[in-house]
Amino acid sequence: MSVGGTRVLVVGATGDIGGLAAGQLAERGAVTALAGRNRARLAERASALGGRPWRSFDAYDLDGCARLAPWAEAALGGLDAVVVTVGVAAFGSAAEVSDASAEHVFTVDALAPMAVARGALRMMSPGGVVAVVTGEVVDRPARGMADYAAAKTALAAWLGVAGREARRERVTVMDVRMPHLDNGFAARAAVGTAPALGPGADPPAAVREHLVGPVLDALSS
Ligand SMILES: NC(=O)c1ccc[n+]([C@@H]2O[C@H](COP(=O)([O-])OP(=O)(O)OC[C@H]3O[C@@H](n4cnc5c(N)ncnc54)[C@H](OP(=O)(O)O)[C@@H]3O)[C@@H](O)[C@H]2O)c1
Questions:
Q1: What pLDDT is attached to residue 3?
Q2: What is the pLDDT of residues 99-134, one digit of tens each?
Q3: Domain boundaries, the chain
Q4: Ligand 1 atom at shortest distance from the alpha carbon of 19
């Protein structure tokens, strides 16, 4: 399906999933705006997609997170969908992980995505879509991932309620339970070492199946 002219903000576009989503959306004809933390990578990806508008932010600046959707709406002349792929892993037993690490993971994996989505929900028009990546860890929390699983589960609970509320406005909120991917995410953990994980899914195929495809389907329904 082509989605020519559909305006999409990708938050976390410097990451693997966010970069793949931005590329696949552009291939399908969407007009994207990119947000991420690493300014150099963001500028490079925006340029590779033909000179897209971009804006950097940090998860700890929750007001800045909430301003991303209004910024994209102004930059693109409207906004049809927001895709949020920000996150970081943390590993270690519940007893060992420090409170500082727990605060970091809850900020990046729960509070920041919630703030981005909250900012979007305040201004999305009927038919709009807000898709946020949580992960299969919500359904299968494993030992050594208590804090990461708890942050993602908090985000999933919030998205569930927000989605029920947004239905009144005909806005779709999606909780994307991405499977484990073969992309080195666990090795980029904020703290700790990942327990043995099985083989991961192919990233481009998984992003197409679990994120980009469902977002485009929701936009066209
Ligand atoms: N990969 C997997 O196996 C997998 C499976 C299920 C769910 N997920 C979830 O999918 C999402 C993306 O994963 P990924 O594999 O694409 O990981 P990634 O490549 O490490 O990307 C993570 C993204 O989060 C951003 N980020 C991290 N800390 C930030 C902060 N303090 N402020 C602003 N941005 C910050 C990164 O920005 P920088 O590029 O600037 O660091 C990057 O854009 C995460 O929420 C993850 O939990 C991943």
A1: 72
A2: 999 999 999 999 999 999 999 999 999 999 999 999
A3: 7-220
A4: 16
Q: If one looks up domain 7-220 in CATH, what number appears?
A: 3.40.50.720
**What does the radius of gyration of the chain's CA atoms come to, in whole angstroms?**
16
**To test ligand 1's pocket by mutation, which of 10, 11, 14 has the most ligand atoms within 8 angstroms of CB?**
14
> 18: Cβ–Cβ under 8 A, 6 or more apart, which residues?
10, 11, 12, 36, 83, 85, 86
Distance from the alpha carbon of residue 30 to the mean position of ligand 1, in angstroms: 22
- Output the residue whose Cα is nearest ligand 1's atom 8: 135
Look up residue 39 and give its two tokens: 């300014």
Q: Is the CB of 88 under 6 A from ligand 1?
A: yes
Selection from 215, 118, 110, 120 nearest residue 156 by Cα: 110
Backbone φ and ψ of 189, nearest 5°:
-60, 145
Give the strands of the sheet with 172-176, arranged side by side: 54-56, 31-36, 7-11, 81-84, 129-133, 172-176
What pLDDT is stored for residue 4 in this prediction? Answer: 77
pLDDT of residue 196: 83
